[in-house]
Design goal:
The structure is a single chain. The strands form 3 sheets. A 3-stranded antiparallel beta sheet has the order 2-1-3, covered by helices on one side. By secondary structure, it is an alpha+beta fold. The radius of gyration is 22 Å and the shape is globular. The protein has 2 domains: 31 residues; 153 residues, no CATH class. The protein contains 6 helices and 9 strands; from the N terminus they run ααββαβββαβββαβα. The structure holds 2-acetamido-2-deoxy-beta-D-glucopyranose (NAG) (2 copies). One 2-acetamido-2-deoxy-beta-D-glucopyranose binds next to α4.
């Protein structure tokens, strides 16, 4: 008896689910948005852009690569893992542009930009191409959020990147200068919009980190 009640409840539930799928399908055909699907990157290519603070050289590093995390810790005692700053594309998907990472001549500052003009200006002032950190949107599409850039303008220059308005404002009170939006990315909240992605992991890269930051 219990079993048949359970089966009945299950059958009713299945019916409701089927009904809602059907109604959303009908709705979709009434107001399609083919442009959105065509211009968005593939969320399965998102990777966590993790943030580390290399305290000895007062420098922040952001990366989607596990070797960068390992090498930064091994090469710099005192490094702090600060968590996931954003989710960015690991390959150049539709509508995304490279998010370049450059290091200063002394390898004590990492600078990330998606702006080619800015990259060339940085190269002309002594910065060196380090890696393509990943790929981001240059405009706010597909549920993405702004990635704010802040700059600590001092002898120990440092850049930080955050999707959090609170963190941005806190950084300003700590002496950072707000320099604008570096591009558009996903954060933990916007990622929840993608049921297909519930877990994210760093990329394993073949490079052993020879010659990079940290030295
Ligand atoms: C790129 O950087 C240059 C130089 O700072 C600036 O003039 C230009 O507006 C930037 N382009 C975009 C799309 O933000
Ligand atoms: C960081 O990762 C990039 C891309 O895999 C690699 O080119 C670079 O050498 C790495 N640096 C360190 C210190 O791990």
């Amino acid at each position: 008896m219990k079993t048949s009640v359970a089966s009945f409840i299950f059958a009713a539930f299945a019916f409701v689910i089927q009904g809602s799928v059907l109604s959303s399908g009908v709705e979709e055909s009434i107001s399609p948005n083919p442009r959105a699907a065509a211009t968005c990157g593939d969320v399965s290519d998102l990777a966590p852009f993790v943030e580390l603070y290399i305290a000895p050289i007062t420098s922040h590093i952001y990366t989607i690569y596990d070797n960068n995390v390992t090498n930064t810790f091994n090469g710099n005692p005192g490094t702090q893992y600060l968590g996931t700053a954003a989710f960015i594309f690991s390959i150049q998907d539709t509508s995304t542009v490279p998010f370049y990472c450059l290091h200063s001549a002394a390898k004590t500052t990492l600078f990330y930009t998606a702006n080619e003009t800015e990259r060339l200006t940085a190269l002309a002032t002594g910065f060196v191409d380090y890696m393509t950190a990943g790929y981001i949107y240059p405009s706010q599409i597909c549920g993405s959020v702004p990635l704010y850039r802040l700059h600590f303008l001092a002898a120990n220059s440092d850049y930080i990147y955050t999707t959090s308005v609170t963190d941005r404002e806190n950084a300003i009170t700590l002496g950072f200068t707000y320099e604008g939006i570096a591009g558009y990315v996903y954060d933990l909240l916007s990622c929840e919009a993608f049921p297909a992605r519930t877990t994210f992991s760093l990329l394993t890269d073949g490079a052993d980190g020879v010659g990079g930051i940290p030295s």
